[in-house]
Here is the input.
Amino acid sequence: MHSGVVNAVADERRGPEDLAGMTGVFFVAAITVALIVLGSRRWRRNRLRNAVRNRPGSTPASAIFIRSYGEMEDHLNGRRCHCGGYLERAGEGPREVDGRRYRVARQRCQDCEEDYAVFFDVTEVLH
Here is the structure.
C-alpha cells in the first residue's frame, strides 16, 4: 500500500521533462494550424486568380458582345480584381482579329497592381 501512495504523489508532481514534452506538442500543433491556414489562403487566391483569367472578356474568343459603349462602361465599372481591389482604367484601344472588331480596355488593380485586358466585340457597334 505504501508504494501506491508514492506513485500518487509522483503523478501529482510534474517534472521539467513533462512540461517540455507538453510545450513541444503545443508547438507542433500551432505550426500545423499555421500551415493549414496558409495553404488554404494560397488555394483560395489561386482559385480566384484562375476564375478572373477565365471570365468573359479575358480573351478575344470570350469577348463580350456589346451594342453600345454604355454597355462597355457598365461592365467595366462592375469588375473587381482577384484580390478584391478596385480596377482603375489604364487605357483602351481597337483591335481586329479574323474580321471581328474589338475594343480592348486595360485596367490595373489599385491594391496589387495586376494588369487586366478586357475584350469587347464591337463589330455591331461600328456598323
User: Anything to note?
Assistant: The longest helix spans residues 16-53. The first strand starts at residue 64 and ends at 65. The chain has two domains: 2-45, 55-126. DSSP finds four helices and four strands in the chain.
